[in-house]
Design a protein that fits this description.
InterPro entries: GlpE_sulfurtransferase, Rhodanese-like_dom, Rhodanese-like_dom_sf. Helices cover 41% and strands 21% of the residues. The protein has 111 residues and is α/β, with parallel strands linked by helices. Helix 3 (47-57) packs parallel to helix 4. It has helices spanning 9-17, 31-36, 47-57, 71-83, 95-101; strands at residues 5-7, 23-27, 38-39, 43-44, 63-67, 89-92, 106-107. The chain has a single domain, classed as Oxidized Rhodanese, domain 1 (3-Layer(aba) Sandwich), CATH 3.40.250. The relative contact order is 0.25. Strand 5, helix 4 (71-83) and strand 6 (89-92) form a beta-alpha-beta unit. It is globular and about 35 Å long. The protein is built from 5 helices and 7 strands; from the N terminus they run βαβαββαβαβαβ. A 5-stranded parallel sheet has the order 1-6-5-2-4.
């Protein structure tokens, strides 16, 4: 049984501001929502593609932060990666709305 780690958006923002780039941010929402607005630097791997793309697209040595449409979708993505053997995986609590609420950098057609 794996533990679902939850990361705070403020902690992630602080890491970015301090230039600690040894992590990956994954947006598991569908591509149109990703294109509309996303955390700056996040990569798009829709939840339905996560299992098939994880082995070739992600590094096991990096901390991985995941956000989705809601915390339930994020938690499912975390469980998927943990099942595949990724250990440094955390759900970004509150996702994109929480990120925007602390004025985290975003990109996309909404910005």
């Amino acid at each position: 049984m794996s533990i679902n780690l939850v990361a705070d958006v403020q902690d992630l923002k602080t890491s970015l501001e301090w230039g600690q780039p040894a992590f990956t941010i994954i947006d598991v929402r569908d591509r149109s929502k990703y294109n509309y607005s996303r955390i700056t630097g996040a990569i798009s791997i829709p939840l339905n593609d996560l299992e098939s793309r994880a082995q070739t697209s992600l590094s096991r040595e990096r901390q991985i932060y995941i956000y989705g449409e809601n915390d339930s979708q994020s938690a499912q993505a975390v469980r998927t990666l943990q099942f595949l053997g990724f250990t440094a995986v955390a759900e970004l609590s509150g996702g994109l709305p929480a990120w925007k609420s602390i004025n985290g950098a975003t990109e996309g057609t909404d910005c």
